[in-house]
Design goal:
- There is one protein chain.
- The protein folds into two domains: about 400 residues, Growth Hormone, Chain: A, CATH 1.20.1250.20; about 55 residues.
- About 75% of the residues lie in helices and about 0% in strands.
- The longest helix is centred in the last third of the chain and has 39 residues.
- The radius of gyration is 24 Å and the shape is globular.
- The protein starts with 8 loop residues before the first helix and ends with a helix.
- The relative contact order is 0.13.
């Protein structure tokens, strides 16, 4: 087992610069989870690809990042955290530039896959560095700063991606990582201290292979399921079976192997185990909302992509405000009360969104977005702090990797569920609304008498069908928002399972801080 990682005198002396360096790494990686989505249609035109082919630009990145994220703990133990961090930043920056310069579809898919490999460890390593740089009593403030990048990056990604694509070129979606990458690399080289290396740490190849196979198959199933009509597709069924079998074998292997890839001791910490479940649910809400609002605003309300970005940006402002408040409240107000407040605000915003219609104005979208941003900010930072508040320092590198992995898997599952739910309910709503299109409908008779529709012509029937489809889709979006509200509410009882950390740091951490 690797030695406990901890803050060093140089880390403490340059604490602000260390924070800035790892924050840049967090923002760079978090932005890339969503910034490319807006540019996909432009990439498709440049590459001459089909819709299914261009989706591999996203799939390759997501699958690679998910597979290699759990490897972070082993690599940092064997090679040193600073060395792994610097190589990850360098590789991520170089592959970002290669993505921007790609001339063919195969090139950009390969470079995006490599970008996911290098980017997998950036967020967990950033979190681990901050937890070791700041003393335990200031972990709340440290997680507030780290959370800004993790939470705001995906929210602002579509806005920034839309702006760069509209006024410059889709390639700048990747080129923008160059200044972030350079500043991060030099900051890490100058101010972050290396951690001890455990040369005796063994690599559990079978455990890593099983976990990688399970995660990769799950991500493939989630990414391609909606387009292949889920379990009516042989491919999706095969991916589901592979994912289930591989994960079962990995868990059995983990608890029986002498030197498992992920140590079972991690899960003996109750706060950490509950925190993984909690962050999974929060991951569902974080990106699922962002997957629904842009098409709702563009397709049903007629907003241009730039305006969509402007109206969604205040959501990130709400998150930043909440995190600044949480940083001030750290150590003064029980983190569990802050999480409860965040859940209430998030539920309130989602309930507000269930009242949307196609005539809702921009202020209503901004208001609900700010409230949801506040809610997520009040949840994420205290949850991050409590998850690691009782975890031994030697487990932090592996723990932060699993924490980020669970958030990403939650986001993938959340997006797949809401998109599938949307498609199914649009069809069901269309069938239900169509029942009202009959000669006995008073509203329809009044509309035709007023000249709104002429059902005696093909054009009039088409217009009527388009309106029914539009209203069916609108209701389906509202039903999705209601589903997410109920999911958020199911997380509330988990607060009762979290326990407040001891006022005094555990002996292991005290000794680590003195190393």
């Amino acid at each position: 087992m690797s030695s406990a990682t901890s803050a060093t005198p140089s880390d403490n002396t340059h604490r602000g610069l260390v924070t800035l360096s790892v924050m840049l790494a967090t923002i760079m990686q978090a932005l890339d989870t969503t910034i490319a989505n807006v540019a996909l249609p432009h990439m498709q035109g440049t590459m001459g690809a089909t819709q299914d082919q261009i989706s591999w630009v996203l799939t390759s990145y997501i699958v690679a990042a998910a597979i290699f994220m759990p490897l972070t703990g082993f690599l940092t133990a064997r090679l040193g955290r600073k060395r792994v961090f610097m190589w990850a930043v360098l590789g991520f920056t170089v592959t970002s530039m290669l993505c921007g310069a790609a001339q063919t579809l195969s090139q950009i898919v390969i470079f995006r896959l490599l970008q996911g490999v290098f980017g997998a460890s950036l967020v967990p390593l950033s979190q681990a560095v901050l937890l070791d740089t700041y003393p335990r009593e200031r972990h709340g403030s440290a997680m507030a700063m780290w959370g800004v990048g993790v939470m705001v990056g995906p929210i602002l990604g579509p806005s920034l991606g839309g702006w760069l694509t509209e006024y410059y070129n889709w390639r700048w979606v990747f080129y923008i990582n160059l200044p972030f990458g350079l500043l991060t690399w030099f900051g890490l080289a100058a101010f972050v201290h290396e951690t001890p290396i455990d040369k005796h740490r063994r690599f559990d190849l079978l455990g890593f292979a099983l976990l990688s196979l399970g995660i990769g198959a799950l991500q493939m199933m989630l990414d391609r399921g909606e387009s292949l009509d889920w379990f009516s597709s042989t491919e999706v069924v095969a991916e589901a079976m592979i994912a289930g079998l591989a994960m079962y074998l990995f868990i059995a292997h983990m608890f029986t192997h002498e030197h498992p890839f992920i140590e079972p001791g991690l899960f003996k910490d109750r706060n950490f185990s509950v925190g993984l479940i909690f962050i999974f649910i929060i991951g569902v809400i974080l990106l699922a909302t962002m997957a629904l609002l842009p098409p709702f605003m563009q397709n049903l309300m007629g907003y241009p992509v730039i305006d969509v970005g402007y109206l969604l940006a205040p959501r990130g402002v709400g998150t930043m405000v909440a995190m600044m408040i949480v940083g001030k409240l750290s150590g003064k107000v029980d983190a569990r009360y802050q999480i409860l407040l965040g859940l209430v605000l998030t539920c309130l915003s989602l309930w507000d969104m269930t009242l949307f219609n196609t005539d809702v104005d921009g202020w209503d979208i901004v208001r609900s977005g700010v409230i949801q941003g506040l809610g997520l900010g009040f949840i994420f930072v205290p949850l991050s702090t409590m998850t690691f508040s009782t975890l031994a320092a030697r487990y932090r590198n592996e723990g932060t990797a699993l924490f980020s992995l669970m958030r990403n898997i939650g986001s993938s599952i959340g997006i797949s569920v809401v998109i599938t739910y949307l498609a199914q309910h649009t069809q069901a709503n269309h069938a239900a609304f169509a029942d009202y299109i009959n000669p006995f409908s008073l509203a329809l008779r009044q509309a035709t008498e007023a000249g709104a529709y002429n059902l005696s012509t093909p054009q009039g029937l088409s217009a009527m069908n388009n309106e029914v489809t539009r209203q069916a889709a609108t209701l389906a979006y509202l039903q999705d928002f209601r589903l997410m509200m109920w999911i958020t509410m199911t997380a509330t009882p988990l607060i009762l399972l979290l326990r407040a950390p001891a006022k005094k740091a555990p002996p292991s951490d005290v000794h680590a801080a003195m190393d």
